[in-house]
Model the fold of this input.
Amino acid sequence: MAKRPTRAGFERTRNDHASETAEDYVEAIDDMIAARGECRVTQLAAQFGVSHVTVLKVVRRLERDGLVTTEPRKPIKLTRSGKRLANRCRERHDIVYRFLLAIGVSERVAAIDSEGIEHHVSPATLKRMRAIADSAGH
Done:
């Protein structure tokens, strides 16, 4: 039987949820810049299925946290810190996805599940997931 989460476990989950939106946004911004040469608020709103106002609130928080820079009616730009975070998120996502494939999960389900799992996996677990994915050739 699995051990019940402790107070520390619940606290970590709350912290993970708090950073999840920032991580999703910097990764999306980086992807859009790579694919289209720029990232606009309207593009993020369409991708995440949220309002323009919601995106503006998140982008303001990202700017406050030093992850993006913005100017009125200009594309959103990642700072060096934002780019580093996007790269770490992409790597973590890739490891979780490859691990899920290695244990026999379908590509479709692995793509969906890895999006949520990536935000909550500890460095120790991620290290083991990487080892398993690598040994399975994924």
User: Anything to note?
Assistant: Strands lie at 68-69, 77-78. The first strand starts at residue 68 and ends at 69. The chain has one domain: 16-135. The chain has six helices and two strands.
